[in-house]
Specification:
Order of helices and strands: EEEHEEHHHHHHHH
Strand order of the largest sheet: 1-2-3-5-4
Distance between the termini: 45 Å
CATH architecture of the largest domain: Orthogonal Bundle
Number of helices: 9
Largest sheet: 5 strands, mixed, barrel
Strand content: 15-25%
CATH superfamily of the largest domain: 5' to 3' exonuclease, C-terminal subdomain
CATH class of the largest domain: Mainly Alpha
Number of domains: 3
Helix content: 40-55%
Number of strands: 5
Length: 202
Amino acid sequence: MIAKLTGLLDFVGDGWIVVDTGGVGYLVYCSARTLRSVGALGSTISMLIDTHVREDHIHLYGFPLPEERTWFRLLQTVQGVGARMALGVLDTLSADELVEAILAQDAAMLTQANGVGPKLGKRLVSELKDKIGDLAPTTFAGAAPAKGSVENDANADAVSALVNLGYRRVEAFGAVSRARHSLGASAEVGALIREGLKELAQ
């Protein structure tokens, strides 16, 4: 089982690369997001690998970051999502954006990915909300403001307050994320906590 490859970038194709390791070329399937960051031909590349072994083939899927490989695996736990579709989701959404979409239960955000319709989007946010665990960020991702900003501090304080009230961290992040979407960027901590509690009570 191959878990990691380090070698020279030998070739870049449509959805895949070839990594030359000691004179052996490994074909590795990657997301479009990964392909945009692999560097120049001949440069050294190191990738985490998820190996899929079937009766008729062995496929290698490559990721620059461990959280992307984790999401690749998590996405495939949902019925109707295979390896190619999981890569398609990662083409469109980063690991942080996926976390935010799941926490906010924003199925529409997931339908931006090729092949993900409304039904599958709803299934993804529903089935993955209890599986993301420590993938939940310490600050909000995607379009969230930079760490240390007033808005991000309010998010973090509201999450902390809900956790202190006995809610799980993932639940608190989801509730505050939905509250932020509902109330807007100007919402203060108190409003986020009150709206978050309403979300948790539903």
